[in-house]
Amino acid sequence: MRDSRSPSVDTAEGPDTPPPPVRRPRGSTLRPVHLLLGTAALAVLLLVSVLTGAAELGWQRVLAEIGAQLTGGVSPLSEREAAILWQLRVPRVVLAVLVGGALAISGAAFQGVFRNPLADPYLLGAAAGAGLSVTVVVTAIPQVNLGTTGIAQVAAFLGALGGVGLTWLIGRSAGSDTATLVLAGVAVGAFLTAAQTFVQQLRVESLQRVYMWILGRLSTTGWNEVLTVLPALCLAVVVLCACGRLLDLLGTGDEEAAALGVRPGRVRALVLVAASLATASAVSVAGLIGFVGLVVPHLVRLALGGSYRVIVPVSLLFGGAFLVGADMLARTVMAPAELPIGVITAFTGAPFFALLLHTSRRR
């Protein structure tokens, strides 16, 4: 008869046995060099973009003007030239940083929640909701200005949040897994897009204006658009950066995350709300700019590893840099004409993303 005090290989683990350690993804530590590289890339593109524009101010004079503003010296620019620089060009560049950062950090968050590098900020119906809302406004109020902060921007913001909210309600009513939520997003997006098409047919003359908005644009009349995006983006950055470790734990699976004290449902809801808020703010002032939230986080993941403690903050910096560069191309490629920035991001982002997929597959 076996002694009950002797150890047994098939004895179950006791309640006090600690959970197995979680394998940390490659590049799970955010290092100063990561932020330094992103900040350097952003700073270089910011400077080049500020020095470039349709109005020829002269790069030496622009640098002298910036120095004069910093030191209190005499401005080399006329009053009109200074207004072009500080009320048109600089706000537009800053807006590109905020919109690009918002889309990139939202894309990183969506990819973490759904554990899919192909997820983007428009996955749950934000684009379709915003497009329908703007189309309704343009159809109902033909004289509305889509280029400045006003009713169209408010409609786009609420429409984007409404599309995501509708997807969430349908997805939660059908199940609690992420696959159901994605399918709900596809259904909601298709329905809202069909509704948008129907509304457009009621006033065909609005098609061109809506189409230009859908292609994306960065137009400013001062700092109003910047102030529109800034609060939501700041809130989203704080929440999403704080949730980086939780996103890493979600990547191990819901059961493993729950064993480590994480509530997957609550984490997903918090992350999606923050990311959707940033996306809605970006869409409200810039229209539907594609590929930023898809390409930038994927590139950061390939370069620095799979930890969202690194991907989220670094994507914020490189997303801003990416859109600043795209906007600079949009303003200069066919100058004095200007291309929609969504065309530039699609032209550069789609082939680049295809190359990334090819190289990652070969690895």
From TrEMBL:
The protein, known as: Iron complex transport system permease protein
Protein's UniProt keywords contain NADP: no
Keywords of this entry: Cell membrane, Membrane, Transmembrane, Transmembrane helix, Transport
Main location: membrane
Native source organism of the sequence: Actinopolyspora xinjiangensis
Annotated stretches, region: Disordered: 1-27
Family classification: Belongs to the binding-protein-dependent transport system permease family. FecCD subfamily.
GO terms under cellular component: plasma membrane
Keyword Metal-binding among UniProt keywords: no
GO MF annotation, one: transmembrane transporter activity
PANTHER family: ABC TRANSPORTER PERMEASE PROTEIN MJ0876-RELATED, FERRIC ENTEROBACTIN TRANSPORT SYSTEM PERMEASE PROTEIN
UniProt-annotated location(s): Cell membrane
Membrane topology: Multi-pass membrane protein
GO terms (BP aspect): siderophore-iron import into cell
InterPro entries associated with the record: ABC_BtuC-like (IPR037294), ABC_transptr_permease_BtuC (IPR000522)
